[in-house]
Amino acid sequence: MDKVQDTIDLLKVYNQDHIIKLLEKVDGEKKQALIEQISSIDFHQLKELYDNTKKEIEIKENKIEPLPYLDKEKLSEEQKEEFQRLGEEVIEKGEYAVVTMAGGQGTRLGHSGPKGTFKLDVYGKGKYLFEILAENLKEANQKYGKVIPWYIMTSKENNDETIEFMEKHNYFGYDKDSVRFFAQSELPLLDVNGKLLIGKDMRIKEASDGNGGTYSSLRASGCLAEMKEKGIKWVFIGGVDNALLKMADTILLGMAIQKKVQIASKSIVKANPHERVGVFAKMNGHPKVIEYSEMPDKMAEEVDSDGELKYGEAHIMCNLYTIEAIEKISKETLIYHSAFKKNSYIDENGKEVIPTEPNSYKFESFIFDAFELFDDIAILRGKREDDFAPVKNRDGVDSPKTAKELYEKFWNRN
Ligand code: UTP
Predict the structure, then answer these.
(1) pTM above 0.90, yes or no
(2) How many degrees, rounded to 5, is the angle at CA 154 between CA 152 and CA 156?
(3) Residue 27 domain-assigned (yes or no)
(4) Atom number in ligand 1 closest to CA 104
(5) For a disulfide at 199, which of 31, 111, 142, 205, Cβ 3.0-4.6 Å?
(6) Which of 101, 216, 342, 398 to mutate to test the pocket of ligand 1 (most atoms within 8 A of CB)?
(7) Distances in Å between the alpha carbon of 348 and those of 21, 46, 185, 197, 399?
(8) For residue 364, what are the CA distances in angstroms to 35, 189, 212, 369?
C-alpha cells in the first residue's frame, strides 16, 4: 500500500497527474507492472532533459581543427602488410569481437520489423541485412580460422522478433553459440508539456535511448564482462544498415595497434560539402564528430591546399575500440540529444491518438559523443564504393535502391 502512495507522491512532485489517474484505472498485475515501471524511471533526469529542450544551444568558443587520417588507397605495400599482420594476429588469437547495433526504430525506412530483417533486393533472390552481416563475418572466420564472437544489440521492443528471425534462419549459418543478443536501455518519451505518454498496453511509452547506449548496455547486460573473460582485446561496433560494412578489416585494426590508440574509425570522403553526414574534427584538442546540422556552411565548404574538403572525413558507424576504452566509456554518461518525433498515445478518454505532426520528444545519445573522452583517434579513409551502402530512407538517397546498386557493383568487381 505504501508503495502505491509513494508512487503517487512521486508523480505529484513531477506533475504527472494523468499517470495517477491511469494508476486508478488499472488493477492487479497491470497495476503492479506500472508501479514497477514508474519506480525504474529517473524523473529528475527526465525533467532535466525536458528543460534542455527549451534552452538555446549554447555556442561556446570552440577551437576546431581538421583531424589527420591515413588514406587506405595511399598506404605503401610495407605499411599495408604491417597493419594486416598486426590485425590478423589479434583475430587469430581470438581477441576480436564484433557488436552490431540493431536497436534503432528505422522510422525513415518504414519497414515493419527490426531493420536487420529487411530484405535487400540483390541478385534476384535478395538478402536480409542480417544475412549480409553474417556472410561478412563468416568470410573473416574462414580467412583467420577463428569464430568471431558476434554481439547483437536489440531494443526491448524488437528483441524477441530479432531472436525469432535469427532462429528461423538458422543464424544464416553462423555458429549459434557465438552469437549473443542484448537489449539496450530505454527512456520515456515526453510530450510538449513534459508529460509522459501512455501506450496502448497501458504502460508509460518508452523508446531506445540512442546508439550511444551501446556502451552502457554492453556493461549492464554482462556482455562486457563476458568479453573480458574470453580474452577479447579489440571490439568493433557497427550499424545494422550498411550493406558494405566490413566488420573485420585487418588494416583498420593493425593501424590502431601500430598507432597505439584506444579508438579507430573508418571514414569515407563526403560526397559533397552538404552531404547529410557527420564529419571528424578535433574540438578543443579532442576527437569529435560534428553533425551536418551543426556545421556552418562556410566551414563545410572550406578546402585545404590540395583542394580537398578540410572537414571531409565522414563518420560511417565503423568504429573500433580497445576493451579498456569500452570499459571506460561504459561508466560515463553521454549527453542526450532530443528529437521531436511523431508518437501515438492514449488520451484521457482512453482513445488512441495517432499524430500527423511531431508531438513528442525522444532522447538519444550518440555513439560518437564518446570520442571526446579520448585524446586521440586513428582514422582510416576507406572508399565509398567499397565501404558504404546505407539503407536509411524508403526512397531516394541512401535507400534500398541505391544500396542494392552499390552492393552488386562491389561484388561484381570482387
Ligand atoms: P540511425 O540513427 O540511422 O537510426 O541508426 P535508425 O533507427 O536506423 O533509423 P531512423 O533514424 O529511425 O530512420 C544508426 C544505427 O544505430 C542503431 C541503428 O539500428 C543503426 O544500426 N541504433 C540507433 C540503435 O542500435 N539504437 C538506437 O537507439 C538508435
Answers:
(1) yes
(2) 150
(3) no
(4) 7
(5) 205
(6) 101
(7) 9, 22, 28, 11, 39
(8) 24, 11, 7, 11
Q: 3 in a domain, yes or no?
A: no
Q: What's the CA gap between 130 and 111, in Å, rounded? A: 14
Domain that holds residue 66: 41-413
Residues facing 266 on adjacent strands:
380
* CA distance readout (Å), 111 to 20, 118, 199, 392, 394: 35, 7, 21, 10, 8
Encoded amino acid at 126, one letter: G
CB-ligand 1 contact for 239 (6 Å cutoff): yes
Pick from 43, 372, 40, 370: nearest CA to 216: 370
pLDDT at 82 > cutoff 80: yes
Helix (H, G, I), strand (E, B) or coil at 153: strand
**28 within domain boundaries:** no
User: What is the spatial distance between Cα 255 and Cα 261, in angstroms, rounded to a whole number?
Assistant: 9
- For the chain, give percent helix, strand, coil, nearest 5: 40, 20, 40
Using a 6 Å cutoff on CB, does residue 400 contact ligand 1? Answer: no
Report the atom number in ligand 1 closest to the C-alpha of 210: 28
Average pLDDT over the chain reads 95
In-domain check, residue 349: yes
Does the C-beta of 227 come closer than 6 Å to ligand 1? Answer: no
The residue to mutate among 241, 244, 293, having the most atoms of ligand 1 within 8 angstroms of its beta carbon, is 241
- The pLDDT, as a whole number, for residue 295 is 87
CATH label of the domain that carries residue 83: 3.90.550.10
Q: What is the pLDDT of residues 113-152, one digit of tens each?
A: 999 999 999 998 999 999 999 999 999 999 999 999 999 9
CA angle 414, 147, 102 (to 5 degrees): 75
Nearest CA to ligand 1 atom 15: 239
* Nearest by Cα to 382 from 71, 165, 94: 71
Q: Report how many domains make up the chain.
A: 1
Query: How large is the greatest C-alpha to C-alpha distance in the chain, in angstroms?
Result: 72
Rounded Cα–Cα distance for residues 365 and 253 (Å): 26
Residue 238: closest CA among 137, 141, 160: 137
**Contact 240 CB / ligand 1 (< 6 Å):** yes
